[in-house]
Design goal:
Strand order of the largest sheet: 1-2
Strand content: under 5%
Main location: membrane
Oligomer: single chain
Order of helices and strands: HHHHHHHHEEHHHHHHH
Protein name: ABC transporter permease
Largest sheet: 2 strands, antiparallel
InterPro entries: ABC_transp_permease
Pfam family, one: BPD_transp_2
Number of strands: 2
CATH architecture of the domain at 58-302: Orthogonal Bundle
CATH class of the domain at 58-302: Mainly Alpha
GO cellular component, one term: plasma membrane
Number of helices: 15
Length: 352
């Protein structure tokens, strides 16, 4: 586009309105899916379905928050779904068997210790991803794709592909409260929603109120420039992948608690929902831009879309197609927004 066309009368206001609409695309999408499914599925707005949707949204939101930090740095984490399955299986093993050192006795754990160990395992997987990317210069796509297979295989090996059932815990060991993580309530609100609220508050604080958050955006915006300005790029990347692993571990624990069972296939394709929620919420796949609040709204869009399609009896195959199209559309719109922002900035500079 030439300088003359940039400065042409009427062009700047129209681009400004279009840019505003693109920035608000997540809210527009949320309103549209709510309106459509409220009309197409009569029971969609029932209290029971609202509670169910909120739980599904929470699952997507945990993963999407971790994915947001990763994508802001210009990376991607394809392993989160498999980490969900792996940490769920680790949780199930600890609830049922504890740890057997091989001396004729076992070490048993209470609910908090079980959750802490599972979270530590998720962080460890994230740390391995981070080391592969920062120390061995493996592309994030390849490193996390490989970890996707490793973690899923490890989950299958833990039980030879079988389910760990009846995860009710044992009062004698202090693990009888384990099912409450996914099914319990506090002040009439599910415990998992409280956990999500705490996670959102902490993540938003880190992203927008701390030096670490500023460094995360700096690395995604210009990694070389960030390094030259004194940012420890390796530490920043290590943090985001470890945080993503922690979020995946939380989801694995919550699902095992909800179902009172662990299955090695749990979490398959969860990475698609996480990426879709983050990108739909305004996180740029090229890095340097994204907000936790937008990601949460994106998680609502994906959760409502998934549940609405199920209520309408849409085939799971078509659901995958639709989610894939949502991801593609979100990336295309993000690229359009980036180009439009650059043109508006150039027009403002020329006008000034």
């Amino acid at each position: 586009m030439s300088a003359a066309s940039i400065d042409a009368p009427g062009h700047a206001p129209s681009r400004a309105w279009l840019l505003l609409l693109l920035r608000a695309r997540t809210f527009v999408a949320l309103i549209l899916v709510l309106a459509y499914f409220s009309w197409a599925a009569p029971n969609f707005l029932s209290v029971a379905n609202a509670v169910l949707v909120s739980k599904h949204v929470a699952i997507n939101a945990f993963l999407a928050i971790g994915m947001t930090f990763v994508i802001i740095t210009g990376g991607i984490d394809l392993s989160v779904g498999s980490v969900v399955g792996l940490t769920g299986m680790i949780t199930g093993w600890l609830v049922l068997h504890g740890i057997d050192p091989g001396f004729g006795w076992s070490i048993q754990f209470n609910t908090f210790e079980i959750a802490a160990i599972a979270c530590a395992c998720g962080i460890l997987v994230g740390a391995i991803n981070g080391l592969l990317i920062t120390r061995f210069n493996v592309a994030p796509f390849i490193a996390t794709l490989g970890m996707l297979y490793v973690a899923r295989g490890a989950a299958l090996l833990l039980s030879d592909g079988r389910t760990f059932p009846n995860l009710n815990g044992n009062p004698e060991y202090g693990s009888a409260t384990f099912p409450l993580i996914g099914t319990g309530q506090m002040l009439g609100i599910p415990v998992m929603i409280w956990l999500l609220a705490l996670t959102v508050a902490l993540s938003s604080y880190i992203a927008h109120r701390t030096r670490l958050g500023r460094n995360i955006y700096a690395v995604g915006g210009n990694e070389r420039g960030a390094a030259l300005s004194g940012v420890n790029v390796r530490r920043v990347k290590m943090f985001v992948y470890m945080f993503s692993g922690l979020m995946a571990a939380l989801v694995g624990i919550i699902i095992a608690s909800q179902l009172r069972a662990s299955h090695p296939a749990t979490g398959e394709f969860f990475e698609l929902n996480a990426i879709a929620a983050a990108v739909l919420g305004g996180t740029s796949m090229s890095g340097g831009r994204g907000r936790i609040g937008g990601t949460i709204v994106g998680a609502f869009v994906i959760g409502i879309l998934s549940d609405g399609l199920i209520m309408m009896g849409v085939s799971s195959f078509w659901q995958m197609v639709i989610k894939g199209l949502v991801i593609i559309a979100a990336v295309v719109i993000d690229q359009l927004q980036s180009r439009l922002q650059a043109r508006v900035a150039l027009a403002q500079e020329a006008a000034g």
